[in-house]
Write a structure and sequence with these properties.
This protein has 13 helices and twelve strands. It has 383 residues and is an alpha/beta fold.
């Protein structure tokens, strides 16, 4: 077992033309380290079990791996379908995007809920709530989203259109990288006019697959390597669950994709199904199992490792998560051989730099580290 952890800094990403929206869990800066570990396994097929905005899936695909991307979020499925499968079929996406960009803006549900006037630079609207977009962009959003629905596009073309729309919205938003709250004063980028562009599709000629569901439902897939980057939650028991639920962080992307005009609540008008009670993930859970005394999140990671069929596993985890390095090493030793471990000094996501977050957690001064564990699976060696 690798007892010592290799310490390193964040590497550049030159040559890896991945793309995505602002995201607290982004691994963009860690891609070189992830690919270096993957390259040592000799793998040709990869399962990305928590694909998120799909930057890691894109990097694997661009590096010649055949990828299975999985996530439970509807918007993640859209991004994965767009980037991994959008190149197939020779569709003229430029014409589609040009058509959507030139629609006449219209008032609709998104404008009613999330559009604010430029006013005197303040983002508060008639209802007294801060807004994520200026009204000239929500009116374009309403028109574009309705047109995508009316066009009845095939699934892959629809995914490319929706991904393009989310990327465009991300470029003109009034947030700090999440959608739990919005800025009081309009961000300079929010004054720009929303403009869709064709996403940078991965054209590798490989048959990539996209799944949406619990990772435990796809961890039995026959692949050489499984890459797991579960949500970390928080290791601070005073922090409310609403601050660490990914369903809450990115509720707007869910609504843009589903176009279901859900019931909303709170100052940021979140979807009711993204509330603390409705959107729990055991990987983000800060509680202990009353029977074993162990953290539920750590037990779930152990279950995932024990059920994975891939010979090789790369586990990415944060020093800010519920599982400690010691917890993870103990779990890994039960189900595999730790071949290598890399510790990366990593800038915390944007929320942690905000004074209210730091004041709540009391951890602003603590160094943040990201761990990458390369594991050889004991299960496959026995079969």
């Amino acid at each position: 077992m690798a007892d010592a952890i290799r310490k390193t800094g964040v590497s550049g990403t030159r040559g890896l033309a991945t793309e995505g929206v602002k995201y607290a869990g982004s691994k963009r800066s860690l891609l070189p380290h992830i690919l270096e570990l993957a390259g040592r396994t000799g793998a040709s097929t990869v399962l990305d079990g928590f694909s998120g905005t799909t930057r890691v899936s894109q990097a694997f695909a661009l590096s010649g791996y055949r990828v299975i991307a999985n996530d439970i979020a509807a918007w993640s499925e859209v991004f994965a379908t767009c980037y991994l499968q959008g190149w197939q079929g020779g569709v003229d996406y430029e014409s589609l995007v040009d058509h959507l960009n030139n629609l006449v803006p219209q008032d609709g549900w998104f404008t009613d809920c999330y559009g604010g006037s430029a006013g005197e630079g303040k983002s508060s609207a008639w209802d007294g709530l801060k807004k994520p977009w200026q009204i000239h962009n929500t009116r374009k959003l309403d028109a574009i989203r309705e047109e995508i629905e009316q066009l009845s596009l095939p699934p892959v073309e629809r995914a490319v259109a929706l991904a393009s729309l989310m990327l465009a919205l991300d470029r003109v938003d009034n947030t700090v990288g999440h959608q739990v709250s919005y800025l009081r004063e309009w961000a300079p980028r929010s004054y720009r006019v929303l403009e869709m562009k064709v996403p940078r599709l991965v054209d590798g000629g490989l048959d990539h697959q996209v799944c949406r569901g619990d990772v435990l439902e796809c961890c039995h897939r026959e692949v050489d390597l499984a890459y797991y980057d579960p949500p970390y939650g928080s290791n601070n028991e005073k922090m409310p669950p609403s601050r660490v639920r990914y369903a809450a962080y990115y509720h707007l992307w869910t609504t843009v994709c589903l176009n279901d005009q859900p019931e909303v609540f709170g100052k940021s008008l979140r979807r009711c199904d993204s509330s603390d009670r409705c959107s729990p993930s055991v990987y983000e859970d800060f509680r202990r199992n009353p029977e074993t005394g162990r953290f539920l999140a750590v037990e779930q990671i152990e279950r995932l490792l024990s059920e994975t069929r891939a010979r090789w596993i790369i586990l990415s985890y944060s020093s800010g998560g519920r599982g400690t390095e010691e917890n993870l090493r103990s779990v890994i030793s039960k189900h595999g051989k730790l071949v290598d471990a890399v510790e990366v000094d990593y800038r915390r996501h944007v929320m942690s730099s905000m004074s209210w977050t730091g004041d709540w957690t009391g951890t602003r001064a603590r160094p943040h580290r990201e761990f990458l564990f390369l594991i050889e699976n004991k299960r496959t060696s026995r079969e």
